[in-house]
Amino acid sequence: MKTDIKNREDIITLVNAFYDVVKKDTAIGYLFTEVTPVNWDKHLPLMYDFWENILFHTGNFDGNPMVKHRILDEKSSLKEAHFKHWTKLWKKTVDGLFAGDRATEIKVRAENIAKFLMHKVVT
Q1: Distances in Å between the alpha carbon of 85 and those of 15, 42, 56, 64, 82?
Q2: Phi, psi of 3 (to 5 degrees)
Q3: What is the mean pLDDT of residues 68-82?
């Protein structure tokens, strides 16, 4: 039986599982592996902090996702389909691991963030 997202360890599990899928994904994986090869040792802890802050309001994230996505867009034009696919993968990963109010919240928050970034980045 699935449980809800309870703590940072659950965030780490979710983020790691999500990026394991993303790295192999044919629709968006190339953005992370070819266009801007990600240093996973640096990126993953930032994503742990980001999502932990989103869900638990820890204040431990210091970054600017908008700038990062604009830089990525300059290298390889991002489209609405990229953001929608990212959201689909995120929701599927959450649903595969967790169930509950926080799991629902993190999916809603991810969709809102993706929509915001999409409207600010996609031209």
Answers
A1: 16, 24, 25, 22, 5
A2: -110, 170
A3: 81
